[in-house]
């Protein structure tokens, strides 16, 4: 029987790519609000894209250490289902954002070695979901979306009291092994379904979703 893995396709910038994600069966679509990213969208672009998302597919806004002014703007103009916090937001800030906007919050935590695992437990106490991502290199321009993976054995068999998603360098070729090793039931991808940074490839999106759902 095929796996029921829920897939998030992140960093969508145009309706064609968004439609490719929806057609491939993505459960979540991600819009990046981070000017340094090649996947950044303006609030107006995001509002247009959000209109093309059918009911049942969750619209996720990815922000990095966003202040209230930016979050106020985004949430006022873009219909959203989830806020993804991908910066250095503290557990207190996660709680504050949840309360202020009344939206579920998914907190990304970077993992490189054992010492990073405690943070997952801390954030699992305050966030609605946690996103287990590769820790970016110190000199990286982006805190995520670098196409880098981490040693999946670090989280093999680990579970948290909230839903969690695996991210970091996943591709159509590697996602099956990553799921088998970690037991993830949700996976997130950005660079692994692109032809060049910021440009999504419909065939890679379809291949990723198929591979994530295969036995
Ligand atoms: O995708 C981006 O540009 C990005 C920018 C800033 C923070 C996070 C970003 N992406 C997220 O990073 C992970 C892993 O991405 P990848 O598959 O390794 O490219 C994923 O959660 C993206 O949503």
Automatic annotation (TrEMBL):
EC number from the UniProt entry: 5.3.1.24
Domain annotation N-(5'phosphoribosyl) anthranilate isomerase (PRAI): ranges: 7-209
Entry's Gene Ontology molecular function annotations: phosphoribosylanthranilate isomerase activity
Pathway recorded for this protein: Amino-acid biosynthesis; L-tryptophan biosynthesis; L-tryptophan from chorismate: step 3/5
Catalytic activities: N-(5-phospho-beta-D-ribosyl)anthranilate = 1-(2-carboxyphenylamino)-1-deoxy-D-ribulose 5-phosphate
Domain of life: Bacteria
EC category name: isomerase
Keyword RNA-binding: no
Gene3D superfamilies: Aldolase class I
Keywords, comma-separated and alphabetical: Amino-acid biosynthesis, Aromatic amino acid biosynthesis, Isomerase, Tryptophan biosynthesis
NCBIfam families, per database record: PRK01222.1-1
PANTHER family on file: N-(5'-PHOSPHORIBOSYL)ANTHRANILATE ISOMERASE
Family classification: Belongs to the TrpF family.
Protein name: N-(5'-phosphoribosyl)anthranilate isomerase
Source organism: Yoonia rosea
